[in-house]
Here is the input.
Amino acid sequence: MHHPLFLPSEAAPAGARPLPELPLLVLVGLTGVGKSSLLEALAYPTLPDRREVVDRYVLPLFGVEGKTLDRAERFALTRRFRQTHPGGVAEALSQARTLPTWPLLFDGLRGEAEVAYALEHLPLAHFVVLEARDLTRLSRLLGRGDHFDRVKLDSADEGELRATAQGVFSAEELEQALGWGFPAQELLTKLKIVVEERKNYDPEGPRRLLEGHPRALFLDTEALSVAEEARQIEEFVGRIHAQH
Here is the structure.
């Protein structure tokens, strides 16, 4: 269920309130960690997602709104944005407004700096951190068929695959991925997305920041089914509601 979000430069109705004054449930996790399936299972009111916030707030700052960019180009622009706005997308949220409702979800924040900014500037927000290995995320990206998952390629031979994977995937993990039978070009495209995202966001950062924190819930999306994840979040939401 889509819920409106009014960014700093956008007119908001009289009943809208600043997000720092409202309880919010924030999904934290990298591409392919399982956020979309979970959102569908929960069916909570959901703010425009990270992709849309970047389209509406970040891209206009660089004069590229409305242009078709691949994932690598978007990563590069958001990296430039964070050089002057360390809180990244969380800074946009902290200045935005919405109509009060609960539970209310945002998908999602990435990396330690964004979560740290949200932890300080969205004092009523709680965080659901979704975790999965890079190899699992790569597998999910290969299986989901999202047209958004594109990067420009010069070549897609095995040497390029191995060079791209270096430092992120072990030789054994790459051999496993090569054995899945996907065309080399498709495998390299998704591999580049995982690797480029790792350059921007350390997946261990949110755990360093939030492990043991009362406003955080960690879910291993490899060990849990979507139904089990949803049940834990519903219990988490119930505890939050009881506190307020």
